[in-house]
Amino acid sequence: MNLQSKRTLANDVEMPLVGLGVFKMTDKEEAVQAITTALHLGYRAIDTAALYYNEEEVGEAIRNSNIARDEIFVTTKVWNSDQGYDNTLRAFETSLKKLNMDYVDLYLTHWPVLDKFEDTYRAIERLYDEKLIRVPGVSNHHEHHLQALLNNANVAPMVNQIELHPYLTQAPLRTFCKEQNIAVTAWSPLGRGNVLNDATIQAIAKQYEVTPAQVILRWHLQHDVIIIPKSVTPSRIKENTELFHFELSNETMAQLDALNRDERFGQNPDNFKFDF
Known about the structure:
alpha/beta; TIM Barrel; 8-stranded parallel sheet
């Protein structure tokens, strides 16, 4: 494994194992600089969303990078208020214009809005059929949400992006996704920073002579989980790539697995409410 390593998805499209998440990067200059830094360091995946209000900055940074568009894997998402079949198609068109691109690599339903997420995914299937996206996927979907889609989908979702970290290991959901050949991406691989001070993780970091963040990100990779850590700090963007000079033992992996508390730092897909 290295920073250029990829996961082959169900349709043989290759998705980088490590990408940059850009959630909350609302300062235009800061966002462009962070993405530019990441691309310079060798990142080849950027994860944005309509909700993040920085799709324009993602497009700008990629165009200014002088890296060929087809070498960069771009993910964006349809927000809850834009869900439903026709609304999703319109929302995608808006995102594509903001990105100033001809296609998006991966398009996701951001959250499974009750009575809408199935129609939303039907729209994503259409976008896939029309080759406007390379990969159809979802985010924050539990097993029962996925099963509802699988019962009717012509093309199964190929990625499920979920909250995932050592305090929320989601082992049963990861097993289900593996059985269905759905790749798992962790949208909060460091638990929004809440797991970095865990005594066990600190001790493991000392043992391996790496940082707590590197321990956690390596744990994800060894579980075949795609990661999109977010940072605007150049040193941390770099630190999050330095994961390939060490390997966690089976014993260490088990130690980290045992930290699970089923503790969320985001909302539960079965009971979520946003006031924006």
